[in-house]
Amino acid sequence: MTEPAEGFTGMRRAVVIGGGLAGMLAAAAVVPFADEVTIVERDVLPQGPEPRRGLPQAKHAHVLWSGGAKAIERLVPGVTDRWIEAGAQKIPLMSGMVAHTPHGWYRRWKKPTPHYLIACSRDLLDWHVRDLVLQEPRIRLLDGAEAVALVGDARRVTGASVLAQGVLERELAADLVIDASGCGSRSLRWLSSLGISGIHERTVDSGLAYASRIYQAPTRSDNFPVVNVQAAPRDSQPEQAAVLIPIENGRWLVSLSGTRGGEPTADDKDFVPFALQLSHPLVGMLIARATPLTDVSTSRSTANGRRYFEQAQSWPEGLVILGDAVATYNPAYGQGMSVAAFGAHLLSSELKQVGLREPGLARRVQHAVARPTEEGVGGRRRPRRLLPGHSRAGAFRRQPAHQSFPRPSDQDRRRLRPRRNGADPGDDHGGQCHAAVVARRAPRRRMRAAEAAFAGPSAYTAGTGAAELCPR
């Protein structure tokens, strides 16, 4: 273990700003290398799988891909079993999904796949991570408190100033401060106050809006698939979509989405009609006879944002920034939780090599975190086409609608040809690439082969079993 640097006491301390999923994973990553870890959280966290004020997006559809789930399991052993026991479902890709795409029905696989998603409410997912993490005696939660500043200078961060009940409680000394406070992070302002500025920010906002509602699933709907009706691209027209996710306690979480000019409303009576008028009415038909359990919740917080901390000319020792404080993602991509887990796992890997007080640790971690962050946004760095009212920071080249979907080259066609007539799409190289990338088990560069494989209508069949899902 590295010897304490000059000015450090014998106690190794870490402070984590933010008690959400990213913060809890960061605490789990750092605690094997610290004597004390303090999590500072602005909200008073619930003592169970219940909503919290600082996570309004929890009301909308969330999926955790198997790559992210495995990263969380490595940090918090036993959490996957806890999710399943509490009613979450492990849904295989692609046999456990029914998806209508712009080219028709996505072909469901018959063979099992190692890739899956965890389907449950965000409240349940977060609660079981939080409960297991806080069982570690070296981790203490300071909720109902707010970090208001970093302590230190441009060379080293030595702690955080904390405000509790409107009173400056104290300065928490730390060898390492981890900002996992989410999209509302104040790190840019805090760094500026230490003399570090010029960090580039980038935002892409498609204007997507969400409306979500929970329904009681019908009887005999065990092992129900995820149902997804994707947007049908039309040049300069709003895109609209829907997804139905089976969650715990026999319920369906249904989220509708639309870009500017085609947004779903917050009016309960508009929810089913919106779903029925999509490119396929399947989701609308499923919920038309189901019993709603909640009112409609809406959100417009769907912009992709990126802060390039790793590109800063100088970086203080003792500060690491993770999760949504580095990048926020459109929920449609299902990347945020997985990227946060990968970032925490990379922090753990670096700490295993050098320890908590090693000079240069924070800089190395920040550079490492950039890799999975870019994987999350890299495939969408350039929008396929501009939508009405689309705003963006940086220049993007407009792509005509007819170029929205790549066409396979002859080489791609030969490479991706099924091994035999009637082969299951799961035998296809392109299908395997697609599943691995979606599940965050392979880098995004493999998506080119998958896109080529699934670009043409011939890659889809109507044999999805969708008709069997519809109420008669």
Automatic annotation (TrEMBL):
Pfam family, one: FAD_oxidored
Annotated region (Disordered), positions in chain: 365-434
Protein known as: 2-polyprenyl-6-methoxyphenol hydroxylase-like FAD-dependent oxidoreductase
